[in-house]
Amino acid sequence: MPTEKTPPDAGSLHHERGHDAYSHRHDHDPVEEGAALRVRALEELMVAKGLVDPEALDSVVEYYERQTGPRNGAAVVARAWTDPTFKEWLLEDGTAAIHSMGFKGYQGEHMRVVENTAGVHNVIVCTLCSCYPWTVLGLPPAWYKGSAYRSRVVREPRSVLREFGLELAPDIRVQVWDSTAELRYMVLPQRPAGTGKLSAAELALLVTRDGMIGTALL
Predict the structure, then answer these.
(1) Are 189 and 207 in contact, with CB atoms under 8 Å apart?
(2) Is 131 in the active site?
(3) Is-catalytic flag, 179?
(4) What value does the mean pLDDT of the chain take?
(5) Range of the domain at 159
(6) Is 131 known to sit in a ligand binding site?
(7) Which of 12, 76, 106, 131 has the fewest beta carbons under 10 Å from its own?
(8) 17-42: per-residue pLDDT in tens?
(9) Molecular function (GO) terms listed (predicted)?
């Protein structure tokens, strides 16, 4: 079981190994934009030189767009919101429950799902590198892999969440879960009020990648 530590702002870190933490400025959008431009330029160059088959590249992109990614996780969350039996299973054995929906694969072999409640808000991180549940959340955003997020969310989770636009009430406990190569986490957000008549498909549209990381409510 993970151990718990309490950083200065009353958050808590759950992890199975210790890491050195250093404070950095938390920038993310410019990094993502810059990376996207570099990837596009590299792709065009490799295709032009005949090093990459465009059809093969398209199939890889389609895999991450259609067969893996946040839409998978959103489907899991929506089912948990509408099926109490599945929710109980998901929280007890995240791996089996997620795999039962057909979401299997690399970096999704061992999963644990942690639930947000009225009194607890969960956030996931990988303090050592960038372990991330690809099968349900897709590829990790640049900021998740950056040293700023990896170090600061452990020590000052409320400050980091505030930079994402998420201001939590003082009485809400923040738990930070440290993913490893052996175990990856996903957050189950709270179901929004007033959504009782929505179908699972409609509910899934409300769920975002950041909500399942914990840097947003949904």
Answers:
(1) yes
(2) yes
(3) no
(4) 81
(5) 3-28+70-213
(6) yes
(7) 106
(8) 333 333 333 344 444 456 566 766 77
(9) nitrile hydratase activity; transition metal ion binding
Q: Is 126 annotated as a binding residue?
A: yes
Residue pair 172/158 in contact (Cβ under 8 Å)? The answer is: no
CATH classification at residue 136: 3.90.330.10
pLDDT tens for 183-195 read: 999 999 999 999 9
Task: State yes or no: is 147 an active-site residue.
Answer: no
Q: Considering the candidates 12, 131, 151, 179, report the single residue annotated as catalytic.
A: 131
In this structure, which amino acid lies at residue 115?
E
Total domains in the fold of the chain:
1
| Token code pair at residue 190 | 């709270």
Q: What local confidence, expressed as pLDDT, does residue 37 receive?
A: 65
Question: What's the mean pLDDT in 76-105?
Answer: 94
Of how many residues is the chain composed?
Answer: 218
User: What's the pTM?
Assistant: 0.71
Would 160 be classed as within a structural domain? Answer: yes
Nearest one of 218, 117, 129, 143 to 178, comparing CA atoms = 129
Whether residue 218 is contained in a domain is answered as: no
